[in-house]
Amino acid sequence: MAPARAPGSPSGALCRQLLLTLAILTFACDACKTVTLHVPAKLDAEKFIGRVNLKECFKSATLIHSRDPDFQILEDGSVYTTHAILLSSEKSSFTILLSNTETHEEKEILVLLEHQTKVLKKRHSQEKVLRRAKRRWAPIPCSVPENSLGPFPLFLQQIQSDTAQNYTIYYSISGPGVDKEPRNLFYVERDTGNLFCTRAVDRETYPSFELVAFATTPDGYTPEYPLTLFIRIEDENDNYPIFTETNYIFKVFENSKVGTTVGQVCATDKDEPDTLHTRLRYSIIEQFPASPTLFSMHPTTGVITTTSSQLDRELIDKYQLKIKVQDMDGQYFGLQTTAACVINIEDVNDNLPTFTRSSYVASVEENRIDVEILRVAVQDKDLIHTANWRANYTFLKGNEDGNFKIVTDSQTNEGVLYVVKPLNYEEKQQLTLQIGAVNEAPYIGSSRSTTNMATVTVNVQNQDEGPECDPQVQTVRIKENVPVGTKNVGYKAYDPETRSSSGIRYMKSSDPEGWVDVDENSGVITILKRLDREARSGVYNISILASDKDGRTCNGVLGIILEDVNDNGPVIRQRTVIICKTVMSSAEVVAVDPDEPIHGPPFDFTLEGVLDSEVLRMWRLTKVNDTAARLSYLNDLQFGTYTVPVRVTDRLGQSLVTQLDVILCDCVTPNDCDIYRSPRTGNGEVILGKWAILAILLGIALLFCILFTLVCGATTGAAKKPKVFPDDLAQQNLIVSNTEAPGDDKVYSTNGFTTHAVGGSAQGICGTLGSRVKSGGQETIEMVKGGHQTMESCQEAGHHHTLERCKEGGQHTLDSCRGGPTATDNCKYTYSEWYTYTQPRLGEKVQQCDQDNTHMQAQDYVLSYNYEGRGSAAGSVGCCSERQEEDGLEFLDHLGPKFRTLAETCMKR
User: What angle do CA 630, 635, 636 make, to 5 degrees?
Assistant: First the structure.
């Protein structure tokens, strides 16, 4: 390196700039070119000899490889020897291969090794001014042996700057091992640059040191950049390999195949990785029991495997191994450690359960159940209280009737034999059973037979038994129309010893209907009452108690199957039929027959009555299917309730007449017609019907009409001049007015429409057709023809009657509300007359309701309003509206379909 010039010299600054430029160009041009390393002729194993800048040549290299196996290249470019080398010539070389496995790019670096002796010779041959350049300012990294014995201080190397030829240079170092922990481990002589180590170093604690060297003049000038010194601590095999566990426990199933993995052991070594110091070898030192040898260990992985398939848990259930691990690749001088390994042999079901005896004998009394009669034992060599040891017992032969069961005692593994179904000595005195035993776990041994058998002989002991009810349920067939006193076969019990029924007495313990009597000696039954199959559908059961002379009994059931006869006619269950006249013209009626189907449909439906009866003129029946018919009305009948007798006949001619209550109703669905029904509630409460309310209202209206007529007549007689009514009838009934309060202008017609204010001056002429009444702030239109008032006129002055008002707690019956049959007929006639007379005129007035005098749309008829968030409780106010309030007018909802037309016209528009 050229000497540095004095600070502040312009020529020195220019020189340094030129040198820096030249160094940069040289650096760029030398990439991937030859690198020279100065080394001694003899190199020790794993010796650091220099560092090559790999990034300068190939930054993206992923694979670094030396073509010479004598040298090893690390990722940082450090070059180490793999073993001891003696360089025979003054110059040697090897190539470093750099490659990228992803891009498949490769580059090579040629490394030249030159002896240091040659370098020294060259230096001595140079001019005298260069003799002091013994060392470069950038020396090669040095190393210190671990746990070195000295002598200390131990010389490592000399650092010297070329600028020492022109200046007095002082050398100093800093970093870990100097002024940082471990302090004072290294120091450098100030004047010579000799680097020393003061004591031994443990590589496992400090594997390397990176120091910074400085070269300065006495006046503080720094002619060189700080130099980084890398000191590597050379490893010594001073650490024993250690197993991760002191005792290993593995398990393997018996009869395992050769090569089955038992487990793996592992050891660690604190010495330098990837060296012989940490290259470990595993082995088995000893096995107990020693013979035969059944296990082996892989030397490098520590995996233990089986070498034989003769592992038998029943002979030896555990093996103990002494294992060893040794470093230095297992060489005799390597450090070693031992550990213990226990291998447990796991059980498999390779042994069948065997009976301790091949035959057994047991005895049991007849008719006994749930009693233990025998225990059978087995032997099994497999591990106790496991699925390989527990036995399952089965019947191989002899238990076809299910008289026995056998279960396993979980503690002793014995088979316990029970009787679960009574045995009969008279039928069989001895039974032979074959019992087999298998394990819960499947058998995996080599034996062909997987089931062991034993024979059990069961002797049945006789018992003196009572009567036997067998079968317990017995049945007889009897027609339901048999006369009282008829005898029939009854229940039979017998003595199991003699198979005879003599000496057995019978009595009934249960007869729900009391229909029969049982003969004490023979069990024959006698009919006491008329039998009715429809009253007791299915089988009629009688409980029978049979007993012998010793008082022993048995219970049986006698089932009487009642055979059907055609003793019932078809009946229509739904007696009330609702026809919504506005949407339907007929209703379907369905009949049922309680008899058997052979005595039932198809049914024949007919109307009951003579040929010229009113029923046949008003109604018609049409058959729908075998069990249903359609009832329809023929004429335009009025709303109301009608009684229609219908006769239904089954296929054998048995018939029955059903009185149907048919309701013609103004509704959409039958549920809307609940107001027409007036059943008695049973507690004295009465619900008024529509016609009863109408009759009451008409009576009250008629009374008021008579009073008004008298008052109006007296007033007319006192008048000086009668008022002449105009002939124009265009607006004589409904007055177009935009005033909300009643005005003084009133138009009177020759038909007698008049206005009368109750509670005020009575002025006007009262006619026979009707009057307009304002009572208590509520205005209504009353129309009368022939002395009869309309439904609207049924309101009292100041008090309005509605349907709910008439019901009023349900305290009156329908008849009392109607006022009897006469009042009902009168009310129907009045309603019909009013309906026929008034409907055409109302239609005409409705047509003219929205027109003014010029036959144009009235201004107050169609009114548009903005939406204010919710609907109004009040209706629209127009030329057809005569109401100031709607309270008490609920009865208008039930006035009939013709009134709906008027309401929809006035309200919706």
Answer: 110
233 in Cβ contact with 210 (< 8 Å) = no
H/E run at residue 372: strand 371-376
Residue 304 or 493, more confident: 304
Answer whether 311's CB lies under 8 Å from 254's CB. Answer: yes
What totals of helices (H) and strands (E) does the chain contain, helices first? 9, 53
Which 8-state DSSP code applies to residue 104? Answer: T
pLDDT at 176 over 80: yes
Q: Contact, 42 vs 65, CB < 8 A?
A: no
464 pLDDT band, cuts 50/70/90, is confident
Residue 231: count of CB within 10 angstroms of its CB: 23
User: Which two structure tokens, joined as six digits, stand for 548?
Assistant: 């012998």
Distance set, CA 849 to CA 293, 772, 779, 857, 860 (Å): 123, 18, 18, 9, 11
**N residues, the chain:** 909
Gap between the Cα atoms of 109 and 24, Å rounded: 19
For the beta carbon of residue 160, count every other beta carbon within 10 angstroms: 19
> What one-letter code names the amino acid at 757?
A
Encoded tokens for 443:
């058998």
For 57, phi then psi, to 5°, come to -90, -45
Measured over the CA atoms of residue 474, residue 480, residue 485 and residue 488, the dihedral's sign is: negative
Under the banding of pLDDT at 50, 70 and 90, the label for residue 426 is confident
Distance of CA 554 to the CA centre of its chain: 54
Half-sphere exposure of 208 (CA within 13 A, CB side): 11
The secondary element (H helix, E strand) that includes residue 322 is strand 318-326
Instruction: Tell me which residue has tokens 């470069």.
Output: 136
Q: Average pLDDT over the chain, rounded to whole?
A: 75
The pLDDT score that the predictor gives to residue 546 is 86
Tell me if residue 10 falls in helix, strand or coil: helix
Predicted local distance difference test score (pLDDT) of residue 1: 35
Residue whose entry in the numeric block shows the structure tokens 């009969």: 424
More confident position, 42 or 797? 42
Helix, strand, coil fractions of the chain, as percent rounded to 5: 15, 35, 50
Is the Cβ–Cβ distance between 457 and 374 less than 8 Å? no
d(CA 20, CA 18): 5
Using a cut of 0.85, tell me whether the model's pTM lies above it: no
Q: How far is CA 436 from CA 405, 443, 456, in A?
A: 13, 14, 11
CA-atom Rg of the chain in angstroms: 64
Residue with tokens 């009113």: 614
Which is nearest to 406 in space by CA: 376, 369, 429?
376
* Residues 6 or more apart whose Cβ sits within 8 Å of residue 727: 750
Highest mean pLDDT: which range of 121-135, 567-581, 686-700, 883-897: 567-581
With b for 16 or more beta-carbon neighbours within 10 A and e for fewer, the 644-655 pattern comes to bebbbbbbeebe
**How is residue 320 written in tokens?**
């103990």
Tell me if residue 628 falls in helix, strand or coil. Answer: strand
Give the E-state strand segments of 687-762 in sequence order. 754-757
Q: Which residue has the tokens 């029943």?
A: 314
Check whether 10 has a pLDDT greater than 60: no
pLDDT digits 0-9 by tens, 117-129:
433 333 333 333 3
471-495: average pLDDT: 82
* SS3 assignment for 799-857: ECCCHHHHHHHHECCHHHHHCHHHHHHHHHHHHHHHHHHHHHHHHHHHHHCCECCCCCE
d(CA 651, CA 655): 9
Q: Taking the CB of residue 698, how many other CB atoms lie within 10 A of it?
A: 23
Residue 644 has pLDDT above 70, yes or no: yes
Residue with tokens 């107001």: 675
Instruction: Please state, in angstroms and rounded to a whole number, the distance separating the CA atoms of residues 817 and 807.
Output: 9
The vertex-865 CA angle with 859 and 866, nearest 5°, equals 155
* Joined tokens for residue 163: 């600028």
